[in-house]
Amino acid sequence: MLASVFSRRLALPRCSVPVLGRRGFATPSSQDIRDEDKKPRKSTTPLRRSASASLPIRANPTPTRSSIQTVFTLATAERYLLSRMRTHPELPRAWQKFHDSWWIPTWGRKGKEGEVFVFANGSFVCWGLEEEEAHRFALEVIGRVPGIEVAPLKAPETEELEFVVDPIETTRLQGDLIILGKNPSLNEVAPPAKYPPMAFPADTLFARYAFSQALSRSTALSALEVALDEYLSSMALLPHSLAQTGKPGMGRTALVKKLGELMKFRQGLNLNRENFSDVPDFYWTEPELERYFNSVSDALDVSIRTDSVNDKITYAAEAQSVLRQLLTETSTHSMELVIIALIAVEVVIALIRDGPELWEIFTGSPVHDKSSEPHGKPA
Q1: Cα–Cα distance between 264 and 359 in angstroms, integer?
Q2: What are the φ/ψ torsions at residue 211 (nearest 5 degrees)?
Q3: How far apart are CA 50 and CA 57, in angstroms?
Q4: For position 10, what pLDDT does the model report?
Q5: Residue 144 contacts by C-beta under 8 Å, 6 or more apart in sequence?
Q6: Sign (positive or negative) of CA dihedral 159, 160, 161, 163
Q7: How large a percentage of the chain has pLDDT more than 70?
Q8: Complete DSSP assignment for 321-376
Q9: Is 272 helix (H, G, I), strand (E, B) or coil?
Q10: Which sequence spans correspond to the domains of the chain?
Q11: What gap in Å lies between CA 125 and CA 208, rounded to an integer?
Q12: Cα 166–Cα 168–Cα 170 angle in degrees, nearest 5
């Protein structure tokens, strides 16, 4: 388990599932730790830096501790319409709305069942399911719900962590490993009166929900980061074009579309109900669950990444301001040319129509009109 694995976006071979961009976390090897100061690393999140904190748990199994399993998160769209889950053609009774998610207590092949939380931000979190099973869930469940996906992603994004179940431990995130242990204390949130059969202990259901919501938020943010990077890449030639030709190098319609895309990014980051800056209202009265949520959010640098995305959007907004000025100047210049042309036409018509009279006024002599002379020679 001490393999060093960290990839922000990993292209997977296409089988029966789409190619995914992946963000994975695992414990570093001893060689990686020794070489930490010798070369720069792409992985700089607190989760990766503190991955060694999970070594005592990984290296010292106990009779009460389960095997290490996977928490796999996958985002396939910008947003899910969770109300559409009720239209699934084979909706089991156990599937139900659970606060801000749709909860599937058991899913998967017999003997390898896991648990799934589906969130409105376009992602779902699988507990105890391998990557292949998560892909299958996307195809067989999400794919069979008509209209649930709003703006599907070109390349789905993923996050991956690991967890163990140990009833004598305290529920927490240790390094890069989630430990599901003792039942967290709840203040005002009332557990369901009767739990359906589920793949994992009911005592940690709310803890799993809190961890899942933080993971889903990070994955949705990854999708936004990728889309924004693609947008900025499409605008990268604008400064060069302006410097070389004085023109933006794209038409008015294309510029207006770019303005709309930028407004969409800003809305998705800060104005939607599922934004990346505020802690959900659900945790206001539950400090223990909020601690679980914040531990994963901090480990995945959600706040820092949100600020970074906002800075990129601010830069893009400045570029769009230049584009708007160019559009305004172009429109003004075109209108001026049209007005000048209309004035010139009007002047020409006036000269043709009133030219003789104007000549007589300015010169004092009548204009010779051949039409007034008699035809033929006088007798």
Answers
A1: 64
A2: -60, -40
A3: 13
A4: 36
A5: 88, 89, 90
A6: positive
A7: 79
A8: HHHHHHHHHHHHHHHHHHHHHHHHHHHHHHHHHHHHHHHHHHHSSPPP-GGGSPSS
A9: coil
A10: 21-218
A11: 10
A12: 85
| β-pair type (177-180, 96-98) | unpaired
Report the chain's mean pLDDT, rounded to a whole number. 79
Between residues 8 and 264, which one has the greater pLDDT? Answer: 264
* CA-to-CA separations, 363 to 82, 249, 367, 370, in angstroms, rounded: 87, 54, 9, 19
Residues 216 and 99: their CA atoms lie apart, in Å, by: 14
C-alpha gyration radius of the chain: 33
Distinct helix (H) and strand (E) counts, the chain: 9, 9
Does residue 295 have a pLDDT over 70? Answer: yes
Q: Do 200 and 281 contact (CB within 8 A), yes or no? A: no
Reported in sequence order, the residue ranges of the chain that DSSP labels E, i.e. its strands, are 21-24, 69-80, 96-98, 101-107, 114-119, 123-127, 149-165, 172-174, 177-180
The tally of CA atoms less than 13 A away on the side-chain side of residue 44 is 7
Query: Residue 38: its pLDDT value, please?
Result: 36
The pair of three-digit structure tokens given for residue 186, joined into one six-digit string: 């709840």
137-149 per-residue burial string, b: 16 or more CB within 10 A, e: under 16:
bbeebbeebeebb
Q: Is pLDDT at 193 greater than 50 in this prediction? A: yes
pLDDT value at 33 more than 60? no
Evaluated on CA atoms 115, 58, 292, 121, the torsion sign reads: negative
CATH placement of domain 21-218: 3.30.310.10
Helix 252-266 × helix 302-363 angle, to 10°: 150
**Separation CA 112–CA 110 (nearest Å):** 5
Residue 33 DSSP class: H
The residue-averaged pLDDT of 42-46 equals: 47
Class of residue 209 by CB neighbours under 10 A (exposed 0-12, middle 13-18, buried 19+): buried
Lowest mean pLDDT among 150-159, 331-340, 359-368: 359-368
Q: What is the mean pLDDT of residues 298-319?
A: 87
- Matching residue, tokens 């990444």: 305
